[in-house]
Design brief:
Two copies of one chain form a homodimer. With 372 residues, the first copy, chain A, is of the alpha+beta class. Chain A folds into two domains: 141 residues, 2-Layer Sandwich (60s Ribosomal Protein L30, Chain: A); 172 residues, Phosphoribosyl-aminoimidazole Synthetase, Chain A, domain 2 (Alpha-Beta Complex), CATH 3.90.650.10. The first copy, chain A, contains ten helices and 13 strands.
């Protein structure tokens, strides 16, 4: 078991990610990007404007919609690198799955079937690739995740970027392209409304968000990543559980004729993401899932109150489906049949934009999530 | 004018990129990726197998082909950063165009119309984005390149990756998705053969390949990036000329009913890329374009012979079109009308796989390009 890391709480702001500095650029980029949508008209197509600000960008190409995305893994490789140093074991098979999950789990929110993944593996120098065990784990994990999601691995880039990527490190990202077909599968929230059920798909751990905080905590723990989190697992191993892949669930739902009214991938900003759609609606959560052991540990050791923890981390809910109430139980059953634990967690209500977590007495107001 | 930098030639191998270390991983990745193509059958689609190993991956989705790609800029930002330090001027508008060009110029080789670009801007820390002039230049240049290519900027990622991306640096990449429509525009080389004309589209400078060598040379020049390359321009400014965007040309060709038999984006490996198609054919170049001032300077200062220079850098030829001979002059005229200088440079012949540059007495054998 761990000793208390220190007397003071550890929050995400302290972990070194300053969104205030990133956001002005993001806003400028979003405005410039929005102005380019009209170019599609010159090719006989059009953008689906409602997809601006959503997790994937959607274009109407006539018989189907095209969805595309690029997603970064983030800093989870730093945990894998440190665990490799401490234990000799490469976790890059898991890291590969994390990277694909970041892209695929976002792409499917709009109702798309992921078809092609491209790999972006930018190393700090050519010698990164000379660690054969690590390279092979990365390749094997990437392929396995593609197999799980039934996507084609189209290719990618493996640049050596000495001077840009730090020596001994790798910057991992994935792009994903898919289609929404039939077009009736498009789910951008136009049907989202009061009375919809909220179904959570279980998270497998921390996924790939909150890793800056997780790493900061490791520095404060006397045994660092080798700390037992209370179930016999080390903190490092628990963090490196690969992110769940949800496209088998969304494809099974489509096969069963269930079209979600909306979906949210619970990543950065934690459960605040549950209100990511621009509509003014209240999302009432009446049942919370198990936190997963590693997040329970992190909440305790970082001394995060529920507002901070649920507003930052996934806390056991990896993905949210918003469904006609009558579809909710079937959706849960289908998810379980696809190998993903699921639960009916609450419902959408008329009311101000907010997320209300009844069992925890926590509320996130609409002003606590600024995405657009 | 410059003083001779040193007595010894400077080659690409010395510049620190060791392809031998990267290639085994690439080969393992390519094999694993190839095994995933069959997944598309589960969705009612199929991969276009001939696109494996080409510059973009192509999927048959029924009424059209889908093409996708992710491409890295490379290390050109290091030149921009150094020039910003020396002169105070941000070149990130040009850098943005370079990044988009890397993706778009590859995507169009298969006959695709680029539709959506996603931005991948991974910084060494949140504070990278606090340089407002640089950020605004990046956004403005990105939008302008999208405007030129008439693509929609779908969105992207702006992660802050302290510990992975070096402090003060940014790792730039772009993904691009497009369609081949009508399907008859697909150009994967099945019609490529003896008698085809080779048309070169002019390069605008070094583009984004060979920058490791270019930076190494700067270290050897007494005045570094501020060296006058002989035309009043500094070496740094000349290097930072943005990469030409060729999709306006390929779209204009399509509009005129000209479908190239094959296309090659002349990037890494220089003119060896002219034989990138797996067919055993001889590519005879009978006329060489102007090198552009900066490549002429580099060849001289690095003391590269023509075999080394043309096998590494674009040497004025940014993109090659392989066309029915009767279409060649019209293609040149259409390119010029689209604002891109072009020339008939040679022809395809029966014979062993090689590139023969008659005016320079240089030949690249098939064994000098291992891409697959």
């Amino acid at each position: 078991m761990t000793s208390p890391a220190s007397g003071t709480p550890l929050t995400y702001d302290q972990a070194g990610v300053n969104y205030d500095l990133i956001d002005p650029l993001k806003i400028a980029a979003q405005r410039a990007a929005a102005a380019t949508g009209a170019h599609l008209g010159g090719h006989g197509f059009s953008e689906v404007a409602a997809s601006r600000g959503e997790s994937a960008y959607v274009v109407d190409v006539g018989p189907m919609y095209l969805a595309s995305i690029v997603e970064c893994l983030g800093t989870k490789t730093l945990v894998a690198d440190e665990m490799a140093r401490l234990t000799g074991k490469s976790h890059y098979d898991s890291i590969a799955q994390d990277t694909i999950a970041m892209a695929v789990n976002d792409l499917i929110t709009v109702g798309a079937t992921p078809l092609v993944v491209q790999a972006y593996w930018a190393a700090g120098g050519s010698d990164w690739f000379s660690d054969a065990a690590r390279s092979q784990a990365l390749v094997a994990g990437w392929k396995k995740a593609c197999d799980t999601c039934r996507v084609a691995w189209g290719g990618g880039e493996t640049p050596a970027l000495a001077g840009i990527v730090a020596d001994g490190r790798v910057d991992l990202a994935a792009s994903c392209t898919g289609i929404v077909s039939p077009k009736s599968r498009l789910s951008l929230g136009d049907k989202l409304g009061a009375g919809d059920a909220i179904v959570f798909l279980a998270a497998s751990g921390i996924h790939a968000n909150g890793l800056s905080l997780a790493r900061k905590l490791a520095e404060r723990l006397p045994q660092g990543y080798l700390t037992d989190i209370g179930n016999g697992q080390t903190y490092g191993d628990a963090l490196l559980a690969p992110t769940a892949l949800y496209s088998p669930v969304t494809e099974a739902l489509a096969a069963a004729g269930i079209v979600p009214h909306y979906s949210a991938n619970v990543t950065g900003h934690g459960w605040r993401k549950l209100m990511r759609h621009p509509k003014a609606l209240t999302y009432r959560i009446t049942a919370v899932p198990p936190k997963t052991a590693v997040l329970d540990f992190m909440q305790r050791e970082c001394q995060l109150d529920d507002h901070e923890a649920y507003g930052t981390l996934n806390m056991g809910a990896g993905f949210a489906l918003y469904l006609a109430a009558g579809d909710a139980q079937r959706a849960v059953d289908i998810a379980r049949s696809s190998g993903v634990e699921a639960m009916i967690a609450g419902q959408v209500e008329d009311g101000p934009k907010r997320v209300v977590i009844d069992p925890l007495n926590v509320t996130f107001g609409g002003d606590e999530l600024q995405l657009r």
